[in-house]
Amino acid sequence: MALAELKAEYFYCVDNKLWEQLVTLFTPDATFRGTGFRAEGPHDFVDKTAAVFEQVHSSHYGFQPTFSLVEGDGSLVQGRWAMQDFLTWDPQYASLPGITVDGAYAFHGFGYYEDTYRLDVSRWKISSMRLIRTRFDVVTSGVKIRSFQPHREQQSTSFE
Asked: What's the whole-model pTM score?
């Protein structure tokens, strides 16, 4: 599986809640960092993601990838993807961690994924993933959009 197809499969699995399939896309020692999020190993990542997304509908998009070889033998590659995601939920039954805006029912996010990929026998897998948010738009029941632009190194999810 080539790198672009691997990332597309990642987005597909997350958006369709295919948790068992999602686990297979990572190396056993994969690490994950993101806005207010950390996980060690694919099962920890999938368990935490599944818990957050239980009552959430999501659409993830990755585009404009760049790749660079890390090791001379071609078995380790770094990639960066521009990303957007759009998440919706019923505010009576769910919310996203850190979103404390009254009446919030949707989230439109922007940023980048910084990934490391390792060739595992004959298949590429994700060995690290870091999500960097550059902008959050929270949609509320009053159809008012509240934008937040966190500093690149600041990983806060507070929307107060």
From this structure: 0.85
